[in-house]
Amino acid sequence: MTTSDELRFIARVARMYYFDNMKQPDIAKHLYISQASVSRLLKKASLNGIVQISINEPKGTFLELEERIKQHFNLSEVIIASCEQDEETQIFSRIGQAAAQFFSATLQQDEVIGISSWSESLLNMVNNLNNNFKISAKKIIQIQGGIGSPTVQKHASILSSKLAKITHAEQILLPAQGIIGSTEARTILMADPFVQATLEQFKEITMALVGIGPISPEKLLADSGNILTKAEMNTIAQKKAVGDICLHFYNNKGKPLQTAIDQRIIGITLEQLKTIPRVIGIAGGKNKIEAILGALSGRLINILITDQFTAMRIIKSIDQQS
C-alpha cells in the first residue's frame, strides 16, 4: 500500500511536471533521483488518482465518435467534419475541407499519391488546399481512367494536375477511359505502352485518395453521361452490391463482386488498393451509408473522412449489430 508520505512525494513530482512545466531530467536533478524514477512516479500519480486528465472537446469536434468507429473497424484514423445540415452539398463541402486539412497535416516528403478520377468530395478537397506547401510529394498518379464525356474526362485530369502543382509533384496520367466499350478494346488499350507505364507505377503509391460511390450514380457522375446501362446496373444490384471504389463493386461485407464490367475497367483493383499503406476514403451522405459500411467492413480503406450525420448512422448500425 502506498503511504501518505509516498503520496506526498508523488504529488510533488506531479506538480513540478504538470504545473511548473519542468522537464523530467530537470525534476530528477532537482530531487536527486533518476529520470526513470520520475517517469515511474508520474505513472503512479495517474494510477492513484492524483493526476486526472480531462479533455474539453472543442465545439464542432467528435472525438468519441471518431474513436468508436476507429476501434470497431480497426482503422488508422477517422476524421469527422461538423455540418450544420444533413444536406448533400454542405456535406461534400465540409468533408472536402476536413480532408484538405488532414492531407496538409499528414503529407510526408516524397510521397507517391494515387487519386481516383471521380468524387465531388475530392474536388472540394483539392480546391481547399493551400498553395503554399513546404513539403513536396514525388508523384500524383491517376489510378482510374476517365469517365463520361471527353470534356468531363479532361476535368478529371485537371484534378490530378492541380494536386500535382500544389504539392510540387510529377503528374502521372492514366491515358484511357475508366470503362471501355468491350473486353477486346480493353485488351488493346492495356497493351499501350503509355497505359502500361502508369499501371506499373501503382506499386509505388504510399497514399491513395478515393471516393466511395453508392449504387445509384451521384449527380456529378450522372451529369457526365451515365457510363453503365440500366441492364448492367440491375445485374450489379442483383449481386447485392452496396457500393463501389474506383468502379469496382462490393457487397455489404466489403467483398469484391465479380461482374462482366470488371473485364472492361482500366484502373487500380481493390486487391492493389489493399496493399497501399494509407487509403483515405472521403465520403458522406444518406445515400452512401451502406457503401461506406461495406468499405469499412472489408477494410477497403483504412482512413475515413466523413461528416457527423453519416458517422452517427455508422454508430447506429454498429449498435444494431451488437
UniProtKB/TrEMBL annotation:
The keyword S-adenosyl-L-methionine is annotated on this UniProt entry: no
Molecular function in Gene Ontology: carbohydrate binding; DNA binding
Keywords assigned by UniProt, alphabetized: DNA-binding, Transcription, Transcription regulation
Keyword hit for Transcription: yes
Coiled coil spans: none
Matching PANTHER family: TRANSCRIPTIONAL REGULATOR-RELATED
Family according to the record: Belongs to the SorC transcriptional regulatory family.
Protein name per Swiss-Prot or TrEMBL: DeoR family (DeoR)
Native species: Commensalibacter communis
